[in-house]
Every structure is written in structure tokens, then in C-alpha cells.
Design a protein that fits this description.
single chain, 145 residues, mainly alpha, Arc Repressor Mutant, subunit A, 2 domains, 81% helix
Length: 145
């Protein structure tokens, strides 16, 4: 099953290390929820697909943030700019960004933690990304002056 799962994941991400990470996370969840699973194959594929989507979401966010921040800055400068922009967000936006992108928690689980609906989590994520983009663009303008 591991080889089959790896081939599936690798065909989607085209990176051996990332495919290994996703497979490892999938197998970990398989072991964690083994008593609640009806179909091992179906569960493994569902978890793997979810992990692949999460991988591309994180990659997309990082690439978008790189586009906004001046490419001449070194990696440390980019990290500092992102950290600074994230810390400037309202608490409600900061919480969802932190839980979703840094702690890698699903929107459903974030909603349960914060006592809000899943759709409200999605709205907050959208608004947080919009504010984050604006903060990064503003900091880029300030740094150019």
C-alpha cells in the first residue's frame, strides 16, 4: 500500500521529499484513526488528497507573499517582513492565519476551536490574506522611500 500511495502522491506533487512527507503524515493519521476507519484504502486516499491540497495552499501563499515582497531582500528579510505583517493583523485574523497556515489545522477544526462556523473561518482567512497583502505592499512602499 505504501508504494501505491507514494506513486499517487508523487504523481501529484512531483517532488520526492514532499511526497515522502505527505505519505508519512497519511500513514500517521491512518494509525491514529485505525479504530474508526471502515475502508483503509479510501481513508488513505482521502487523507493524502487533503494533504496535497494543503501543500499547494501553503505553496501558493508563500509564492504570493514572495511576489509582494521585494525579491532583492534576503530570505531572512522576507521572513521578518511576513512575521511583521502577520503580527499587525487584527486578533481574529491573526488567529485564523496562525492556526491554518502555521499549525496546519483544517477550517472545520479552527471553527470548532474558535466557536465560529466553517464559512466564517473561510471569510476570515480571505480577509486576513487581503489585509496581509496590503500590509506587505505598504511595508514595501515604506522601505522604498
Amino acid at each position: 500500500m505504501r508504494d501505491r500511495l507514494f506513486r499517487f502522491v508523487f504523481s501529484m506533487v512531483r517532488n520526492r521529499d514532499t511526497a515522502d512527507d505527505i505519505c508519512q503524515e497519511t500513514l500517521y493519521k491512518l494509525l491514529t484513526y485505525r479504530d474508526e476507519i471502515n475502508s483503509v484504502h479510501g481513508f488513505a486516499l482521502t487523507v493524502a488528497k487533503s494533504q496535497i491540497v494543503q501543500y499547494y495552499r501553503n505553496r501558493w501563499l508563500y509564492e504570493r507573499l514572495e511576489d509582494v515582497v521585494d525579491t532583492r531582500e534576503d530570505v531572512l528579510g522576507v521572513d521578518n517582513a511576513v512575521d511583521s505583517a502577520v503580527s499587525c493583523l487584527k486578533k481574529e485574523y491573526y488567529d485564523v492565519i496562525r492556526l491554518y497556515y502555521f499549525d496546519k489545522i483544517s477550517t472545520r477544526d479552527i471553527g470548532a476551536r474558535l466557536g465560529i462556523s466553517r464559512s466564517n473561518v473561510k471569510v476570515r482567512l480571505y480577509r486576513a490574506r487581503r489585509n496581509l497583502r496590503a500590509n506587505l505592499e505598504l511595508s514595501e512602499l515604506v522601505n522604498d522611500v
